[in-house]
Structures are given as C-alpha cells and as structure tokens.
Amino acid sequence: TKNKGRISRFVANKCSIASRIDCFSEKPTTKFGEAMKNQVEERLEFYESGTSPSKNAEVMQGVIESLKMEVEDEAPAKSGKKRRAEEDTSPSKKTKKDDKKDHKKKEDKEEKKDKKEKKDKKEKKDKK
Questions:
Q1: Domain-by-domain residue ranges, the chain?
Q2: pTM for the structure as a whole
C-alpha cells in the first residue's frame, strides 16, 4: 500500500518516455516498451524483496544496440541505388514554397482573428 504511489509514478514516467520514443522514432518498434515493462516488473520485485533494479540508461542503451544489430542484418538484403545524405536533408524548392505559403496563411489568419477580436470588443463597448 505504501509503495502504491511510488509504482504509479514510476509507471507514469515509463509511459511518458515510451510515448516520446514512439513519437520521435523513425520506425515503430515494441522493443522499448518491452524493456520498460521489464523495468516496472523489476521495480515491483525491488519493493518486495530488495533486489536492485537495472538502470534506465543501461536498459535503453541495450535496446538501441539490439536495434542497430537488426538494422545491420537487414542492410545487406537491400540493394539498389542509394541517395547521398545531403540529398535527403536539403528540402526541395517545392517544399520551401509550400512552407512559405503555410506561413503566410497563418499570418493572414492571425490578422483576421485580431481584427475580429477588435471589432467584437468595439461592438461590446458600444452596447454599454
């Protein structure tokens, strides 16, 4: 009962980390979630018996290394022409134009919103 709050905070922390990893990872994988689940189980065992749980940094590093090994195993299977990294990172002219258009649209929307708010305030003031 006294460890209930501790473990709930620990689980919430792990969920938060897992969602960030899922959001920012290029390829979806369950390995991080499985490792975190094992960490939660280790923490429960720690509260019951006192055996020290593994460190988060060590566990995450192990998962990253195992994922690197999987990628290296898959890499020889792929064949074909590869693009240089420079080509992948530089945005095309079309995307730059689209970004400018989006930025301009946002500015226009903000301007319209500001004008509408001013008009509403003025009407409200006139009613009084």
A1: 1-75, 92-128
A2: 0.52
